[in-house]
Amino acid sequence: MDKTIPTLAEAVAGIGDGATVMIGGFGGSGAPIELIHALIDRHVATGHPTGLTVINNNAGNGHVGLAALIEHGMVKKLICSFPRSADPVVFTEMYLAGKIELELVPQGTLAERIRAGGAGIPAFYTPTAYGTDLSHGKKIEEFDGRPYVQERWLKADFALIKAHVGDTHGNLTYRAAARNFNPLMATAAKQTIVQVSHLVPPGTIDPETVITPGIFVQSVVQVTNPQQEEVLNRAKAVYP
Amino acid sequence: MTKLSNAQIAWRAAQDIEDGAYVNLGIGFPEMVAQYQPPGRQAIFHTENGILDFGPSPAVGAEDWDLINAGKKAVTLNPGAAFFHHADSFAMVRGGHLDVAILGAYQVAQNGDLANWSVGAKGVPAVGGAMDLVHGAKRVAVITEHVTKDGKPKLLAACTLPLTGVACVTRIYTSLAVIDIVDGHFVLREKLASLTFDDLQSQTGAPLHLDGPVQDLTVPELS
């Protein structure tokens, strides 16, 4: 078994127009910048993919990574909890111009919807957002005398995630707080595409330390020394 | 003293955090509370993006951008820190495992309703983890100026801004007073000695109740 893909371009080649794509990361931490940029490269060369629905905690920062994906007009809808950042100009202008749709989801509900999607649980109840504008139209039910909001699972056609060490079976470990949404998204997509900073043979990662077991991963591409969004933004980088 | 500074409000809130408590501080002003832990006590701070027991920011140039807090600022780790993914992080939040959450506020109602995520204006709405954090912590406290910049009460009979959560706040530390929420009422616990009860009531948008003696709100001079 070998899930490795030699190039970033091949890793993202199957993502078509209108796909739903989960993108890991919290701000720049754990964001698969190189996979996102490979998708932009394809759009620059071929005009595709477009009309994507993207699920991420944020809406990008500056003009790299997710912000660049949005800036290229490839995203029709964003599902996220916090579409603000140090430099949110790209999303803000698109949103206020009515060029991108936003589904705002509380952060813990977003995480749990993704987990539910990956675990085959179509809906669940949470206290979060009860009595607020973000529970409008949702089913409310009482359990032990307290009201809860019904929320639905989230699933995707593709997940683009970033891990630290991965083996050819797709077993993954993460680095520090770069874990965040990545292990959840890996479970909730039909095709999970991972960029790993270190690709190793099977048996190298201690099974006790595997965070994402390979069953959740379809493609692994190695990106040594990945770029950090924060560093790119401090250098005022614009992609491409 | 006519009112407390933000640092002094944060200091007062920090005095109520027990040794060993698991605490989430909202981004911005509430982050200051971590600076004023009483000597001999150690709280363990939780950040939504997956760290327990993080410490202060590193020196400029020593940042690790995989090691950030919910406000996306670089942090450091204390001995005994742990990483986890977002679903585990919010299990800690909603599952009742945090002892204290300390949040900022636009408005708090006498029944404990909190409004702190949207001023209702046009623009880009953003909620982050605020609506999750108000559920599950054993104590949900607010730190805030007592009134808005133009002198209007922030403690109200009912919030007029979009709600973050219903009946969730248990204690409010303001620039003038410490107030508990008990059975749908504001109960005054401490106030600045320089302020009469009537002065305080006139700056509060719902009745202040008394339940036992009101202590003087005393804090050290802080820079």
Entry keywords:
heterodimer; A: 240 residues; alpha/beta; Glutaconate Coenzyme A-transferase; eight-stranded mixed beta sheet; three-stranded antiparallel beta sheet; 7 helices; B: 223 residues; ten-stranded mixed beta sheet; three-stranded mixed beta sheet; 13% helix; globular
In short:
Helices cover 25% and strands 26% of the residues of chain A.
Written account of the structure:
With 240 residues, chain A is an alpha/beta fold. Chain A has a single domain, classed as Glutaconate Coenzyme A-transferase. Helices cover 25% and strands 26% of the residues of chain A. Chain A contains seven helices and eleven strands. In chain A, helix 2 runs parallel beside helix 3 (65-71) and helix 5 (107-119) crosses helix 6. Chain B is an alpha/beta fold and 223 residues long. In chain B, strand 6 and strand 7 (114-115) form a beta hairpin. Classes of the chains: A alpha/beta (240), B alpha/beta (223). The interface between A and B is large, with 55 and 40 residues.
